[in-house]
Each structure stands twice: as C-alpha cells, then as structure tokens.
Amino acid sequence: MKLTVNGVEHDVQAPQLASLLHVLREELDLTSPKAGCQQGGCGTCTVLVDGEPRRSCLLPLAAVEGAAITTVEGLGAADELSPMQAAFDEHYAAQCGFCTSGFLLAGTALLNGSPGATREEVLEALSGHVCRCTGYVKIVRAVEAALHGEVHPERVEASFEPEETEVLIPGSPA
Amino acid sequence: MTSRSLDAAQLVTPTSREDAIEAFGDGAELTVLAGGTILMPELNYGRLRPARVLALWNAGVAGIRREGSSLTIGAMTPVAELEAAPEPLATAARSVADREIRAQATLGGNLCATPGGEIPRGDLQAPLIALGARVTTAGAGGQRTEPVEDFLSNGPGGRLVLEVELEEPAGAGHATVGRPHSHGFTILAACAAETSEGVRVAVTGAGSHAVRVHSVEQALAGGASPEDAAENVLKDVQPRDDALASAWYRQRMLPVLVGRALHDLSQKEGTRG
Amino acid sequence: MKAVGARLPRYDGVAHVTGRTTYVDDVRIRGILWTKALRSPHHHAAITRLDASKAEALPGVHAVVTHEDVPKNVYGHLEALGIPADEPLLAENDVRYKGQPIAVVAAGDEDTAREAVELIEIEYEERPAFFDIRKALDPDWPQIHQWGPVYPHFGPHNHRRVRKGNVDRAFDEADVIVEGVYRPQAIEHCPLEPQTALAVPEADGRLTIYSCTQAMYFSMGVVAAHLEWPLNKLKFVGGTVGGGFGGKVDTATETICALLALKSKQPVKWRWTREEEFLASSTRAPWHMEIADALTNDGWILGRRMLTLHDSGAYARFSPYGVTKHAFHHTGAYTIPNVHFDGYVVFTNRVPTTAMRGFGVTSVSFAVETQMNRIAEVLDLDPLQIRLKNANRIGDTTANRITLKDPSTVPVVLAAADRIGYDLPAEYRSMTSDRRSGELLPEHLVAQLGVEETSGNGGGR
Hints:
The complex is a heterotrimer. By secondary structure, chain B is of the alpha+beta class.
C-alpha cells in the first residue's frame, strides 16, 4: 500500500487494519507521534491527514490510502522552525515534551484553517489534547502568539526582564 | 514487528450501498468498521481479533440530504457534520468528545455503540429519539425502517445501519452535564423536541443506551409544568453506578437536566432550528 | 543570581518542538521483543497452580519469566534505609492487588505475547479483600499481609509517632476543642508517556537499560538487587522522562525487561498500555486524618492530637518514608507547643501507593490548612489573623525539636493578603518573623522558645 508522509511516498507492508500510528512509528521510524493511550483519548498520536488533525491510533492504514500525512518531522527542522514550533519554543509550551507533537499539529491546523481564531476557539481546538505538566497556560499562549504572527523564529535569547502573569480563565488563580 | 491477528483479518471495502448490503448479509461473524473511534482501540489492545471486517468508508452512505423540512442522514456522516443539523442534534453533536474525534466518529457508529466497559456510549441517541427519527437498516429479512428507540432496544446485532430520517422540529431543548476537555462519554444528557406528534423527551447516560421517557411526555401532555413533568423521569429509567458517575448522582441530576431541557424547549418553541 | 527570574532558553526546547527528543519508546534497535504480562484479575487470592509451558511453546515466544526466574524476587524499595523487604517482583504464592504481575512473556510482536499470556495456566483461590483503612485494627481484619494490618517497623513501634510537651494539660486548659477529619483520595499520576523500558544484552555480558525513570541510580540499584548483579554490569540510559510526577520513582518495567532480555538473549521492550497505567501503576495514597486542636478563645493553638492512617496498598514500597515526612509536617507552618501524633501505614488490597508531588506533605497540608479555616469559623475569628498569630517565628521549636532560623510563614501570608486585597488590622500588617516577645509570647509558648542564636533580623517582609 502507498502512503505519502511529509511529502515522501512510501510502500508500506503493515496489515490494512494496523493503526496509522503503528505504521508511522514501527515501519517508517517516524517517532514524533506517540503511543500515549492508543484509544483516542490523549492526543499524543495526532497527525495531519490532508491538513486536518486526526488521531493516528484510531485510523486503520487502509482508511488513509492516498492521503497526505504530516507529522512533526514534516513541519520544520531545528534551523527552520515553523511558526507554531517557534512559538512553542519561545513560550516554553513544551515541558516534558511527550504531548507536544499533538499540540503542535492541532495548533498548526488551526493556524492554517482559522488564523483569526478566538481564545475560545483555541481552547476548543486543543481540547482533545492532554498535558500533565504545563497546566495549558503556556501552550495556549504559544498557539495564540503563532496565530497573531508574534513569533520570533530566531532562537530564544536570554532576557532578564520578569514576565507578566496572565489570567487565562477568568476566576482562575493562574 | 508484525501483527498476526490483523494480518489474518479479511478487510472488505464495498464501493456502493448495494455492495455494502450484500457484503453484510445477515451480519454473522462480521465486524463493521465505520469511523473507527470505538473499534480501533479494541484492535490496538488485541481485545478483538476479527476474521472479517466490513469497512464502510467508500460505501456511499455519508452525507445529509434535505427535502423541505425532512432530512436523510447517511450512516457514515461524521459527527462534525451534524453540528449543522437541527436541534437538539446539533448541540449534542457539538458536545461529543473533541474536534478530532467528531471529525472521525460517525452517526451510524454512535447508534450502534455498545457500552464501553460499563459506561453507556452513544451521545446522539437521545436527540434522535427526541426528534422521532427513524433508522433504516439492512440485514436478515431485508431492509427495514423503524423508530430509533425500537432499534436501540432490539440492539444493533445483525443490522447494518444505512441512514436516519428525521423532520425538523418546531422547537428543541438540550441539557447535559458539562465535561470539557477529553474524549469522554456523556455522563447524562436530556433532549426534548416539539414534533408533529407532540413533545418527545429522551435521556442518554442512564442505561446501556438512550431511552425515551414516556412518563415525562405524558405528564406534559396532561398539563404538568416542565419542572413537575421532569420529576417523572425516574419512573422510566433506573440509573446505575459506573466509572463516570454514581446512581445516586444520576438520580438527582436527571430531573434537573430534563427540567432544563424542557425549559430550553419552551424558550425556543415556535422558532425553527 | 543572574539567572533567577531571567528568561532562558530550554536546553531541550528545540528537540521537543521538532519531535526529535528520544523517549525510551523512540529508541530504534533492530529485533526487539515485546512484553506482555499476566496480571491478577483478583484483588486478593492464593495462586494454587501456575504452568507457563504452553506459553513457552507458542511459536514466536522467546522467553517467559515467573518468580522462579528471579534471583532475588522479594525486594523492599527502602532496604537501603534498613526497611525490610516485602514485595515480590512477580507474584509467587498469592496476589494482593488487581493487576499485580505474575508472569511476563517476550515475543516477536505484541499479539503473540498477548496470546502467550492467555495460554498460561493459572488457578486462584479467591480470598476476602480489604479496602477500608479505618477498619485495619478491627479484630475481624482479614489476613492480607505477612506483617499484619499495619507496617510494624517504626523502631519499636508499629506507627510513626511524634510527642512534645504535655498534650493532656493543653486539652484540660483549652477554652474550645475543634476537631476535623480529612480524607483526600488516591490520584493517578497519569504521565502521557506510559511506563516503558528497553533492555539490550551487550556482547560483553552487560545489560544496557533504557529507562523512563525519574530516579536513575535508584532504579539501577533495584535492578542490580533483583538480578544479584554488581552495578558495573548495568548501563542505564535515561534522563528523558515523558512526565513522571513521582510515579516514575517506582521501578516498574526495568527489571522485567532485564530478566527477559537475559533469558531470550535479545533486546526486550515493555511499554505499558494506558489501561495498565490505570490498573497497575502506583497512585498517590488515600489518607484518613483526624485532628483535634486545643484552643484559647482568642485563637492560640495550645495543643494538637493527630491520628493519620495512610493507605499503602498491598505492599510497603515508600509509604513508611511518606508517613515520616507527613509526621514532620503535622503542625504545618505553625508553632504548637504540645503535640501527640500517631501515623499508621495501613495495608490494603489496592495497588501500592507511592510518591507524588510533595510525598506525604500535600495530604497533611490540606488537612492542616482546612483545619485552620475550621478553627476560624468555630471561634468566629479572621482566618488570616489566626495563621499570623500562630505562624512559625525565629526561635520557635518545631514538633521535631528543630529551632527555626528562617521561617517564612509571616511574610508569605502577608504577601498573599496583599495580592488578594485582604484587609488586615495594622498590628497584623506590621508583623514579621522576628523572635516572639510581648503579646506574641503568651505563657504557653515561653517554654518552647529556643536559645537565641540570631538577632532577629533574618525574617520580616
């Protein structure tokens, strides 16, 4: 079966009902999608299928034949980060990093499809993704920075100005 | 790593409705794959090792057709597309899981969802019952069309869901226990709709599938206030404990939610959609 | 101190956002075997028969390991601290929690490993299970642990105790006694990365173990102890943790991978499913805490009696340590001259409990701070004023006989009050951490004041 991933066409041997996640990780050695729960509940395996975010653990290989798959490996390399990647780095949106791939791709799809998204729409777009480290504040901040074009793709420089605290959800102590 | 059980499974991908019906036959020893959000975890975890899988993604049974106030919704229509359907279906669809799941999960899969563990699934069943929707299925004995509540009480075994028909209601109401963030199942939801046969009310989350609550409907028809009518909901359902909520909690929340759905309905009555 | 408060790039930031960070599951090695476990379906049962021969014979299976294959099966996580061992790596005579591992299989793929697990023949004799820690000392307690209902090795006692002053007199002299019961429940750490390890046999006879552990050298010690190997035969690769929060202090997968790799002579990976994480990974403990405080009408805490029951689950693991830390903190950030604390580590048929963010201290802080609010409510006094009055100050002696040199309760409470716009009278707003004197040194605190070591300028706002 043919599978196009990050612009490269592959011949894959896995069974037709193998999950796309399994094919990407074990056959193509693309390890940015993670096997966080393998039941669609955590978001770590998210990839783009024809530009739309999808859970690769819930997609049988046969269902994506002919589709264009994008993983984080296809977003941007270290020296040419995509705006969403640069924003995540700049705003410390990745802590342990295990959920980051899924958030990056959900954010990228939002940036491509609804660049004018409101705070509420950002939260909705990210709602299928679980992060246990950050409390989400920095992730939402990063996605919004990318949406607003406020990204500095050059490496984050050390700065000694204290950051302002921001309340994400009214009434929360964040 | 190879996967022995998946290697052995035969995948059938019919390219028309007729082929799908023929391939389904009487449904014996066949696993139907629609969106995959329920089936794929079973395959991933090795809990299900199917001999034959019927995948419907090319079977031409997706999409919403409108004729006047009538809608026909194909079984493979993604939940995301139902967000533009008549209320209370649209609100219920918007409350399902998250963006990625709604784009993949289907109407047909939701109707056939068996309880996961002991947790009721099938968030769209209550709005469909409230709307008086009828479901067309194929299987042994040919095709048949029946009310959704009848289909659910018989169980989906041996039937292939093809489509659902419904009429746009004169008004609708919806109330749910909010559970933001997560691919979770509905704890409890209540739906009401003003249909040509009067107000219909249904609840999701109080049993293994959604149920129509006749006692509430009868109380309303008898002139009871929404709040008083809502108290009757416990005559029709016996909530149980499961991993999401206790029976104690559900017993207290059900009349509240039914009351809210009826209140929501009374606010919107007379305004279509 | 230039870096404090500064904005510095994360050393691993670019690797994270390019998907290049290598977690254990991402390590690519040819020919790895996958692991699945036979886990107990019962909360408590005797194992009356265990026969893995059919599993071993299944094509594609490279190794099956049971308790018989483990050089030192029973291990204690705190053996290095002199705390005896009680937990088998793989269950032998009995199972004491649902999900407890009994046998493990390494096969060429996960499906084959699962099929092999199903072929293991096992019989159980179910036994009564015990879950309610409050009933641990009841006479009809069902025998679930060889040490009895509670961990018995706190020196000469079967509980951690703290005694100071004369608590009976404090209660005799109290105007009011306020009691509270606090019961925080278990929490699953739920890291996004499930427990995962990969063990690779090397040509020189050593093992390389890729581990998601939070506690590298500790895990290395645990594996070496079970294998009865010297540490220099193990090479651990770690440092990349996909979330831990305390749950990856336990050595969950490394030893099993090592044993399977040695038996099969192939690299072996064990990646838990999310279901296994919820079923069998350790959790934060449930606690039962009872506090009774002897108080004066004007809000001084004269004495505290506290009883803590800690749900250890089926084995001790780190629980004695957690309860000890808990005991140290049972007066919170306040000075109480007369205390009587008893803390029990109770065995139940839950999954063993473990560290999670402030091990043992979060529970007691929750109880103490809620109790402070309850006191304020009963006495009809301001909750912040009560805290400021009783707050630790320089020279105060803690329940553990430590004389405080730099307590921060007063400035922290005042800063919090400022941030939320909380109105406090001038006498409270001007409080500092300075050594007690005047009205802040009532009769009952005179004796607990330590010898003066500083001139009292180390605290304040």
